[in-house]
């Protein structure tokens, strides 16, 4: 059954990706007013549409990545890149959503530039997943933080929240494929359970270490540590 599900998701995801790319590109052209001027109300509606399209594209990428891992075809496209810039990009992409949910967002990124041989897009996906979870599962008015720090051997990026946490007896299964904690399913029924599974696979493939701790109703900590050499 699991194999059949993977095959179906892979085929469906490939078929969905092409029309979604077309819709996304046309939305960008509308935003740039290539087909004529728009008022602010129309632009706000278009922005909401684009956010939803981006969410769908992200879900499709998760399904395709999960299928690749199952098929043993998971690959990294490494390049020498600044981890600081990856972290800053992820922070900027998450800032508006945190503001919408009335959360205090406190990012602290190391000023010492760290250049590593990474798959830029995949590491960014890991951070966006951590930040998205922190934002979605943290009540209004509470705080989330992101910290990047390093020592002589490694660099560490940590996302902390004051959210719902993960029940202790369910924590061992958290990074399994399609697993979702019971309280997370009640809070956000539309999740796929692939985000943390993929995040751990990506960090493992980079020779890194996944960091996690949580206390029910008191928040969670997600992060990773990567070797400098």
Textual characterization of the structure:
It is a single chain. By secondary structure, the chain is of the alpha+beta class. Helices cover about 50% and strands about 20% of the residues. The chain contains six helices and seven strands, in the order ααβαββαββααββ. It has a five-stranded mixed β-sheet. The protein has a two-stranded antiparallel ribbon with strand order 1-3. Helix 2 crosses helix 6, helix 3 runs parallel beside helix 4 and helix 4 packs antiparallel against helix 6. The model has no long low-confidence stretch (mean pLDDT about 90).
Topology:
Layout (H helix, E strand, L loop, with lengths): L1 H30 L8 H31 L8 E4 H18 L3 E5 L6 E4 L1 H17 L6 E8 L3 E7 L21 H6 L7 H11 L3 E7 L3 E9 L2
Parallel strand pairs: 2-4
Antiparallel strand pairs: 1-3, 4-5, 5-7, 6-7
Helix pairs in contact: 1-2, 2-6, 3-4, 4-6
